[in-house]
Design brief:
The chain is of the alpha+beta class. It is built from five helices and six strands, in the order αβαββαβββαα. Keywords: mRNA processing, mRNA splicing, Nucleus, RNA-binding.
């Protein structure tokens, strides 16, 4: 198997590789059992979280016990067809994910501070 050969060699993995995978373009009606069937073929899974609300439907997080199993899953399942949808399987990167959410919070914070201290377009004109 490919995973065994990876472990035996002194293979250095790229820095973005980790045990947590972010899966997009999932069918909305996919079940946890189906996810375990698809992703469990590549190694022991610690956890699967499927998005259920409006913003997260069609996405999931898959956490593997071993980093090499996660790498094998990404290599084999990126572009895999499930219910006529091609999966997008990426390594989860906290920095990139948090930037999307933090940007909105920062903009709201700036607006509140501008209103509180009376800073804004009028202040720029002075």
């Amino acid at each position: 198997m490919a995973t065994i050969s990876l472990r035996k060699g002194n293979t250095r993995l790229p820095p973005e590789v980790n045990r947590v995978l972010y899966v997009r373009n999932l069918p909305f009606n996919i079940t946890s059992e189906e996810m375990y069937d698809i992703f469990g073929k590549y190694g022991a899974i610690r956890q699967i979280r499927i998005g259920t609300n409006k913003d997260t439907r069609g996405t999931a997080f898959v956490v593997y016990e071993d980093i090499y199993d996660a790498k094998t899953a990404v290599d084999h399942l990126s572009g895999f067809n499930v219910a006529n949808r091609y999966l997008i399987v990426l390594y989860y990167q906290q920095a990139k994910m948090s930037k999307k959410f933090d940007q909105k919070k920062k903009e709201e914070e700036i607006t509140k501070l501008q209103e509180k201290y009376g800073v804004g377009l009028a202040a720029k004109d002075k």
